[in-house]
Every structure is written in structure tokens, then in C-alpha cells.
């Protein structure tokens, strides 16, 4: 297949107007650099100072990169000599702590078993960031093992970083597993952060913390150098203060990587998609969300209609009865196979070299690793028979086809430009005894089908953010980017949002 990673998102970005944001965008930072009102070293130090002051209240950041100021100094020297390092010149970025980096910082996935996991290796996405001129600022907290340890976990908790707290109310949950990344952006600990998602772990924390985020299509962004959960669904994506910034970072991250086979077959359509004055928008049901979220959604749909768009109430008509049982089996199978491979190849100073050894480590360190919830998911994964490859392949084909067909059909049957839904309900109270309390989610079809899912921070319920999901059609990423921007402009921070 033809690889068209260089298309660019930049052609789509060119039509976006800069919008005033409470927090600094890439354009605003670059403007300040060019006006000599601040340099990269000063900005990076400002973020470090802000993190040191506020992070103890939120536990959003696990570690700061010791070379951050040195990176900034190098970029300032280039700028003085008239050289711009790339589209992310001097932009500090926080990484979820399951993404590997060169240097002295460990990549822990939140687990004490990986506290010495200093791989001194840049994940593919980190190489892309550095090549674009970004500054690696540090590592963000996360749900331990990307929230794949216990059925009763509290999102945003890890043994290494503690419980991450929601940026808008410290008593509420940040959602997982890219909790620290979303909270960090919301609190302006960095203008950009990377998260990872298997099913909802980018879009949910972005939604409940009120930031923009993109879960890319499968194969668009490499996962090499990232602690795995499931290669069938894992993705890496950006969080930011604007859709424009999210898209710019995505354009940097994407690309073919020989270490991730999915990227070698990915084709990004480069057709000329024109803006429309009136979209045909399919609105998925909101009955699984809280009553207040349903009311907000109804107001958002009304605002879109008043802006001249056609809104059609649609539903998924395909039978999804087997979807989530199949998904769980695939995740259990993938995790056992892939975490065993990952742990077996960690540096010698990491003692835990298998899933079985990890389970034993957690038992031996119960007071620090399992003070609130245990590890039933790890135990179930360990029990999976990896030799039953036929069952695995048949299940994988069935569940992916079902999810993909469900998305394609809702578009085709209703002749839609774009599909939307609430992302999740507002953040729940953190409960370390009973675990998470989700009320509705729009992540699974996109996660399983491997299609693009964007969340926009376009409303609040009782002061708590509720994101709006843009669910892309199969192989129609660019349309989703463009139409998400049109919807964002109707419901954007520059206008009075429904509340």
C-alpha cells in the first residue's frame, strides 16, 4: 500500500484560525519566542516551577527530565542563530510513564516492579517529538499497568505515583489510564502531553479534565518503545489546549516504523476534503450517561442546529452482544503474550521478567502495591492458554469486523458527515474502596475498530467538564479532523457553551 504520512494534517491545519485560550497554545508560545518576551529556557523553568508547586496536590507528574533545561538551551541557541528546529520548536511535552525515553528516567508503567526500568531508549514517538524541536519535560502519572490490573481499581492510581486527582476537583477521579497526562495539560504543567489508549484511556481523562485529545487510527502512530497492553488496540495520542495543537502534534507523531508492523500498511487518504457550511451530524443516544449529561448534550445538539447543521438522532443497529466478551479475551491474551516479551527484555536491574513473576512481586509487596485493590485481571491473563491461536484469531477477526461494520453502517445508513456522542459523564468521586464508577462511555467501537476518536471540551455539568466525542468513519480521518473543528467552533470556549 502507498504510505502517505507526509500529507499533511498541515493542509487541514491551515484552515484553522487561532482561538484565544486561557492556557498557552503552540502559536502563542512561538509568538512569544519570536517577540523575545520569553525563551525556551525560561518557559521550561516556569513549567518546572509550577509542577513543583502544584503537583503535590494532584500527583499528575511522576518525574521531571533532568536534561529539560539543557534541551531548551540548545533550542534557544539555534533560535539566536536564526534556526527553527521544527513545528514543535521549544514546546515542552510530558509523556505518560509507559513511554520510554533516553537518559536516566525509568519507564515504570506506575509499578514498583519497573522502578529501575531505565531503558535509555527513545520510543518512536519521542524520536518524532525531538526531531520536531520538542522538549521532553518529564513523565506523567497513570493508572498502573494502564488500568489492566484489577476489576476494582481506581483510575489514576499507581504504586509509584499515588492517586492522581482531577484538575477541577481534587475529590474527583481523573479517569484512566492517561490520567496524569490530562490533568497536567489542564493545570498547564505543559502545553502538550502524550497519553496511550487501549479503550478510553486517552479520551476519558481528556473529557473529565476538560482538554482536547485524539485517539488516532490503528497504524497511524507507532507503539514501539511503549509498555504494551494489547497490540490489537493500543494507541498513542496527543492532549492539548486546542484542536489545532492536537492535530499538529499528531502530524509529528505519525509515520512508518519498522518496529511496529501496523504502521507499514497504514494509508492516510489525502483527498481534498472541503469545509461545509452545513454538516449532517449523527447524534448517538445519551441514555447511558447521567441525566445532567443528557441535558447538556441536548443543548449542544440544539446549538448545532441553530448554527445551521442538520442533526439526526441515530443508533447502532448491529448486534453487539459478543463484542465486549470478545474484547476482554483479546486483551487478556495480548497482555500475557506481550508483557511477558516486554519484561523478558528489560534491563538486568529489573528483577521481574514475566507476568507470573509480576503477580508474585505484587503479593510479596502487598502493602505498597495492593493497599487498595488487588490483581484479578493479571491472574486471569496468566491463566490464558496462548497455544490456542485459532480461538484467538477467530475472536479477533469477529470482534474487529463487528465494531468496524457497526461504525460504517451508522454512517452509510444515515448518509452522515460525522457521528458524535458524549465522551463520558462528569468525573465521579474517587473511591479507593469500591473503585471506579463509570456512567456511559463512547470509546469502545473506535478502540476495537481501530478508527479515530476525538474528544472536545465543549461543556460542563456543575463546573465539571464533559467532552463531546467525534467518532470517525473507517479510513476517513481527515473528514473527522475538519468536521471536529467546525463543531468545536460552534461549541468552543470563545462562545457561551451550553451548561
Describe the structure.
With 499 residues, this protein is an alpha/beta fold. It has one domain: Alpha-Beta Complex (Amidase signature (AS) enzymes), CATH 3.90.1300. Helices cover 37% and strands 12% of the residues. The protein has 16 helices and 15 strands. An 11-stranded mixed beta sheet has the order 1-3-2-6-8-7-12-15-11-9-10, sandwiched between helices. It has a two-stranded antiparallel ribbon with strand order 4-5. Strands 13-14 form a two-stranded antiparallel ribbon. The longest helix is centred in the C-terminal third of the chain and has 26 residues, at 389-414. The protein is globular, with a radius of gyration of 21 Å. The chain starts with 8 loop residues before the first helix and ends in a 9-residue tail after the last helix. The model is unreliable at 1-23 (pLDDT under 50). It holds the Pfam family Amidase. Keywords: Signal. This is Amidase family protein.
Keywords, please?
499 residues, alpha/beta, Amidase signature (AS) enzymes, eleven-stranded mixed beta sheet, two-stranded antiparallel ribbon, 15 strands, 37% helix, disordered N terminus
Mean pLDDT: 94
The radius of gyration computed from the alpha-carbon positions, rounded to a whole number of angstroms, is 21 Å
The unreliable regions are 1-23
- Described by the principal axes of the CA atoms, the overall outline is globular
- For the record, the count of structural domains works out to 1
Helix content: 25-40%
Could you give the count of β-strands? 15
CATH architecture identity: Alpha-Beta Complex
